[in-house]
Write a structure and sequence with these properties.
heterodimer; A: alpha+beta; Beta-Lactamase; Helix Hairpins; Heat Shock Protein 90; 5-stranded mixed β-sheet; 12 strands; rod-shaped; B: Rossmann fold; Arc Repressor Mutant, subunit A; 2 domains; 4-stranded antiparallel β-sheet; 22% strand
Chain lengths: 447, 227
């Protein structure tokens, strides 16, 4: 993944510049139109003033043109009465303006002189019945407008160019964390899963993105470590019976024993073989469960009967330890479950409870039907589970004490299998425990 | 009784052959699929033990060929695949029973006996070994003239042992046939041991000879003979 100079950055700049161009264009146009109308209004007001001055001087009839238009005057005006031009000022004749007849009712008009110059004219009727037309050159206004246009036309591309460059740089800056993240993420692999992406500001979008990445990485790392631990534990567990097999066999071969003793050695080796087989079976079951290749047959079953059978199967184990095993089961509870796996879950949990509850203790199984689902609880009066172990007891091969379960004959897979079995039936397995106050394992089968 | 064993692993094949011969079966070995295919075609056997994973010709192919000829010889398949689907495929193809590797030899013998006995099985009401008597109808057990009181489960175990008297019964056989547990690797093994210990106490403790023995690493056997 390469972000630097990428499409995102270019697209960002392009859109930004285009939007800016549109805004500046509209703005310039408005300014131009506004200034233009304002300047012409001023020109027209000037014409009106001129017109009223001339009209004030124009008192008598006939007109004293010498006074109105003394020599050297620059006044541009003409007088019309009826449809006849009475008088045209010297300046208006010099400027080469055509005779202006009131063809229309327009008061203000722009007219072209003979030399192609533009003039603004205003025509009005004086109190004594003359039609007075006054004119002024538009030159000044036009020049101002042209300058304004030039300024705007020049400023627009310069502003846009600056904005584009600036935008490109800023976009680059903003996208830098993404590029950095991509670079970093690219380097994180199985060997350095503990590394994390840099988070500059956890509050902004990039920070949040990095946070999401980091949490994903944490989960990956966790899964990876679990897998590694699992593999290490599994090979350790497999090696133990293999070692026993090998050493018992080798020692037996070295010794000179009678048939009975050899039979005993072989029996001992077969015991280890059985242990290996059990372990491999359990591992296979879990692996198959993990890959979802285990077919369950979930259908309407009498959960009460299944729990009862599990308890009956395990009863002798409790009796051997003089423990009381009591039940308190809701009658004929039905649910869609796979009988074998659920029984296995209950048996494994019971096995665990009986194993870790001391001689003469008590184990109770309760089952009830609640709104959330069916609850199956196995309570024991055992030593309880310390908080630091509570989460992990469902992990494969996890043992609370060093070799605590091995002495009791387990490989540390019973509860892992139970958890899987419950979850495969759409339920969840929880544990509640306080040290020295016993534990409660609770299966909740959602409805 | 002539048995054909089609199994490519030499060690396993030899072990089965020796074990079966010591049980007075006549054993023919085929170590490739081709050999097995040829032998099933050329000769008649009382039972075929067939490994599913074979070089050359797959076990299922051989099975299909045998059944295709309308040959009803019982076939027991051995497989390292114990996924339910794999078993179903084997049974669908016409196998009579299956055994998942690794298996206990006594279990193989028990399965074979069941297949060979098929159809000739008469109803039994009484079982007996030495001075141990079991009445299946009245559900009474008598050892040396004294009535022994057993729980239902103990009765079932003893019945199973009596039916297989003189032969080793593994924990797995008991789990499957008495407890009807289809899954393997359950905590049931310990449960079985406790039941056996109690049963032994009830039938052997006050008697002169011990009948119920543990064969270390394998299982249990009900026999008169001293080992």
């Amino acid at each position: 993944m390469k972000i630097q100079g990428s499409g995102v950055r270019r697209r960002l700049t392009l859109w930004y510049t285009l939007a800016l161009a549109l805004i500046v264009l509209v703005f310039s146009l408005s300014v131009y139109v506004f200034v233009k109308s304002r300047l012409f209004r001023q020109l027209d007001q000037q014409l009106d003033m001129e017109s009223s001055v001339i009209a004030g001087e124009l008192t008598e009839d006939p007109v004293d043109t010498r006074e109105l238009d003394p020599d050297g005057s620059t006044r541009l005006f003409q007088l019309v009465r009826g449809n006849k031009i009475l008088f045209r000022s010297e300046a208006i004749q010099k400027a080469g303006l055509p005779e202006i007849l009131p063809e229309s009712n327009e008061k203000y008009r722009t007219i072209l002189s003979g030399s192609g110059k533009r003039y603004r004219s205003s025509t009005a009727t004086t109190p004594n019945g003359f039609l007075l037309t006054v004119a002024l050159g538009e030159e000044g206004v036009r020049t101002t407008l042209r300058t304004l246009f030039m300024i705007l036309a020049l400023a627009l591309p310069i502003a846009l160019a600056l904005a584009a460059v600036g935008g490109y740089v800023i976009a680059g800056r903003l996208l830098e964390p993404v590029a950095a993240m991509a670079q970093k993420a690219d380097k994180i692999g199985a060997d350095n899963l503990s590394e994390r992406l840099p988070v500059e500001n956890p509050e902004d979008e990039f920070g949040k993105l990095a946070g999401v990445f980091n949490r994903t990485l944490a989960r990956l790392q966790d899964a990876f470590e679990r897998l590694q631990r699992f593999t290490a534990d599994a090979s350790h567990e497999l090696r133990t019976p293999l070692t026993a097999l090998q050493s018992v066999g080798e020692v037996a071969l070295q010794e000179n024993l009678d048939a009975e003793a050899y039979r005993d050695r072989i029996g001992s080796m077969l015991e280890e073989t059985a242990r290996l087989t059990r372990l491999v079976e359990s591992l296979l079951l879990l692996t198959r469960a993990d890959s979802g290749r285990l077919l369950l047959n979930r259908k309407g079953q009498n959960v009460t009967a299944i729990v009862e059978k599990a308890v009956d199967d395990m009863r002798v184990m409790a009796e051997e330890k003089s423990q009381s095993l009591t039940t308190e089961l809701a009658g004929d509870v039905q649910a869609d479950i796979d009988e074998d796996t659920l029984r296995r879950a209950v048996v494994n949990i019971l096995d665990n409870a009986i194993k870790y509850t001391p001689q003469g203790g008590a184990v109770a199984v309760r089952m009830m039907e609640r709104a959330i689902g069916i609850i199956i609880e196995v309570l024991d009066s055992g030593p309880g589970i310390a908080a630091e172990h509570r989460e992990k007891i469902f992990d494969r091969f996890y043992r609370v004490g060093p070799d605590r379960a091995r002495e009791a004959g387990g490989a540390g897979l019973g509860l892992a299998i139970a958890k899987w079995a419950v979850e495969a039936n759409g339920g969840r397995l929880e544990v509640e425990s306080r040290e020295n106050q016993g534990s409660t394992f609770r299966i909740v089968l959602m409805k | 009784m002539k048995i054909l064993v089609i199994e490519d692993d030499k060690k396993v094949a030899q072990a089965i052959k020796k074990g079966l011969e010591s049980e007075s079966y006549e054993v023919e070995l085929a170590q490739t699929g081709e050999d097995g295919f040829f032998l099933t075609n050329a000769r008649k056997f009382d039972l075929v033990i067939l490994d599913l994973m074979l070089p050359g010709r797959d076990g299922l192919e051989i099975l299909a060929a045998v059944r295709g000829r309308n040959d009803k010889t019982p076939v027991l398949i051995l497989t390292a695949k114990d996924a339910v689907e794999d078993r179903v495929v084997g049974l669908d193809a016409g196998a009579d029973d299956y055994l998942v590797k690794p298996f206990a030899f006594p279990e193989l013998l028990a399965r074979m006996r069941a297949l060979l006995r098929r159809g000739t099985n008469g109803q039994v009401f009484k079982l007996k070994l030495a001075d141990l008597d079991m009445d299946l109808v009245r559900r009474v057990v008598i050892r040396a003239g004294r009535s022994v009181s057993l729980t239902a489960r103990e009765f079932e175990i003893l019945e199973y042992l009596l039916r297989n008297q003189g032969r080793i019964v593994t924990r797995e056989m008991l789990a499957r046939d008495v407890w009807k547990e289809t899954q393997r690797a359950t905590p049931l093994d310990n449960v079985i041991d406790v039941h056996i210990a109690r049963l032994r106490k009830k039938i052997d403790e006050q008697a002169e000879t011990r009948l119920l023995r543990t064969v270390r690493g394998v299982g249990f056997i009900l026999t008169e003979k001293e080992s």
